[in-house]
Structures are given as structure tokens and as C-alpha cells.
């Protein structure tokens, strides 16, 4: 086992909103994927993240950690969520089209899900209200564990995902007057409308 400590930046916890084990696991998953691909954190749209998280389940905080380490965000449009209910990701280097899948090892995940922290969360105890003596050892374990104990990492494979072309062209909606960009607008009777206004007419 490698003698390592992977520090999780404080700003990542602030972005996420609370301290928990799942966000740091996601942060490390992103680091692991980037290391496998030999890439750095995305400053623009160099990478594309496909996350298998579901809409509402334990440890879904994982995704915030992955976004923090990889730089892939919903605002940049380079995150896709599959809603499989699994803590696993595929990270794609959009320049080379090379990709890698990183998933949590069941034995590591099972231990985390059986922890006292998760049992308290089942009782609707907010993470901020869980005692540090329960939470801190879990986070420290994530920071110190060998990545091979936490993750299964695939071989590199090709993924030809294509980002939709962005636009700077916009119009005022003919109904509400709010600005709507061309690639999301609707034309109704020759008039440009935003989707909510168009839905009221169609």
C-alpha cells in the first residue's frame, strides 16, 4: 500500500456545503481518472465528465467532489449525469477522445454505507450535526487509502462524445422580452420565443 495522504482543499467543502466522506471520494475519483489519462484539471472544456450518480441516493455528494477536482461543471456544459444510481464516472479527454472509467470498489463502498455516519444520515441527521469524532476518521481514511483499495480503474478506451456547438447569438422573446439564446429558442408564427412562452401557445 502506498504511503500517501491526498489533501482535499477547503474550498471544495465550501462549494459542496458540508463535510462528508462521499465528496472527498469523488474528488479522489477525479484525480485518479485525470492521472490515468495524463491530463490536468479543465479550465474550459478540455474534458467531459459522465457520472453514473442517481437523482437522490446516499453518497450522491460524490459528484460534487468529481466536479471540484476535474473542473467539469454544469455551467461549462461538460457534465452528463446518467442517473444509474452508481458512484462511477467516465472521464473523456476531448482532444484525444481517450476515456477512462473509475468506479468505487464494492467492498470499500459497503463499509462506508454501513458506517455510523450513514446510519445517522438515515435518521435525517444533517451532516453538520454529526460529531467530528464520527465524521473525521472517515474523511481521513479516504485521504490516506490507496486508490486501488477505493477504485476500480478501467483501461483507456475511445469515446467520441461531441459537445454541442455553443452560440453567442440571442434574441428577446417576443412574449416575455427576456433574452433567449438561439440554440434554445422556438419560432412560433414567425416570432422568436423562449421555451416556456412557446409551451403556453403550442
From TrEMBL:
A Pfam family hit: FmdE
InterPro entries: FmdEsu_dom (IPR003814), Pa2218-like_dom_sf (IPR023288), tRNA_methyltr_O (IPR053194), Tubulin/FtsZ-like_C (IPR037103)
Keywords: GTP-binding, Nucleotide-binding
Keyword GTP-binding: yes
Domain Formylmethanofuran dehydrogenase subunit E: 15-146
GO terms of molecular function: GTP binding
Highest taxon above the source species: Bacteria
Name of this protein: Formylmethanofuran dehydrogenase
UniProt source species: Labilibaculum antarcticum
